Amino acid sequence: MVRPLKKSVIQLSLSLCLGATSLSSFAANTDYRNFETIEKQLQSLAQKHPERIKLQAVGKSAGGRSLYFVQIAGAGKVNADKRPALFVGANIAGFHNAGSEAAMHLIETLANSNEKKHEDLLSKRTIYVAPILNPDAHNGLFAMPRQLRAGNDGKLDRDLDGLVAEDGDDDLDGNGIITQIRIKDPSGDMIVDPKDPRRMIKADISKGERGTHRVFIEGKDDDKDGTYNEDGIGGIHPDRNFPAGFPVADTSAGAWPGVTPETKATMDAVLSHKNIAMAVVFGPANQLLSAPNGFDRITPPGATPAAEANKLEADDLKVLANLGEAYKKSIDQAGLDSKRSAKQTGKGSLANWLYFHYGVQTIELDVWGAPVAKASAPEANAAPAAAPGSTSAANVSGNPARPSGANPAAKASDAEKDLISYLTSNSPESIIAWKKVKLPDGTEVEVGGTDPYAQYTPAAKVLEPALKVHTEQILSWGEKLAQLEILETKAIAKGDDVWQITVIGGMQGEFPTHSKLATRMRNKLPVRLEMRPGKGVTALTLNRATTAERLEPSSTIKGEWLVKGASGSTVNVGLWTNQAGQALTTITLGKAN
Question: Signal peptide location in the record (predicted)?
Fold first, then answer.
């Protein structure tokens, strides 16, 4: 459950006036739970509901915080680790605290529910949830000053000068929030948006526009090398450190895939659960509002071009499209906006690894986003403010690719327009008007922008409906997972104690047993239908098993074998695959089956 806001807007304004010291109490009382609070609540739930909740620490972050996997399952005929399972991983990005709240909402709903539909689901399915996969950065929301953060607590020489964290961000205006600075410079390529003076946009040369400013993260040139804030605190970004599409030229992604303890622990934990059939990542992208486009391969000079898959299979895109229709209806019914903008999953991300390498249908969801702004004329006298925070390098702590003359902030997208419109009406205190500040070297700059978490951490009353929708959707997807079943068995006498055994297998559920990509890459065991003779029975057919790379809801698998045995003898038949469970039956020769 999201914790209620304990300070009013008036109190917040008073805190801003009193300075950063007063803001510390506000930061501790936001709508969201820090890592330590969630850790205690997970431990409490596991103690209170041992029959349903099993808590496992699968590793530690760079900062020494535990990485938790929660297994949620009820009593059933099949062990929890053999049932079709759904994995939910939250906030590997570090700044997506709403994702952790969504994961906790799912855990708390299933832990405390006495509803029959939930008991039935948990008797035949297993849900694995990792609510905070980047706990070091997760707590950045509660730090002072507050700045969007993605890197863990490790050390990283971002500018490769032999020093670590020697030029981080600075709270120049003392309000406890790291926003942006703009510097007048005719060689810059940013301008004040002529249609909305609250935003900075990139000058459009094709329209004859010329840049008037450079834009940076708020701070000064601490190491006096002519660049602002290029080497801040924090280490590698775990959500850029996975192997799928690993961005080799990005310092913040690490020297090689899996180098961060968070990334490796996550991969090891997922790989140890072979029954995972579907994955959901709560992060900054939304693949049901904007179909994923994969990633571009990166081939270093002189290297052999990579052969890894990098685009989604058409059949898997169809699954996402079908799910998207119901998903959009559900969020519209909850008063949210299904037509809002949505980001794409980045290179080296958990979502891409789960789909392209681990091999299961994967969906990244952002839980909440600012609705599309209603068309209206901009306020002529609007107080100027910086472009709102984004997942770009310009706003994430520790990213070496900060906006500068060589790498400016991108032109405001529709999502940024929607966000600033939303904040104007619903959270105006999140927009900080520009304020002139003089740096130690005498340079005059202006500080302004938005609270960098504004687009990811809406108030509790806004987020609550989104949490309910996403829990309901995930549980419905769990119901639709493929479950193998044996549809028909026959044992026809051929004379002289010879029998022809025929078995047809199929599946329940609305999803295929495997993603289409997994069948192409062959990184999952296929569906296997196998006959095993009982005591006194001899197999006359050489091959006792038949396989299929995957089964779809309307498809079947058929096996035929000849055996020799007396009437009353038995033959065992099994149908199984790691991701869709198993079905077993015994055929008695000479008896109607």
Answer: 1-27
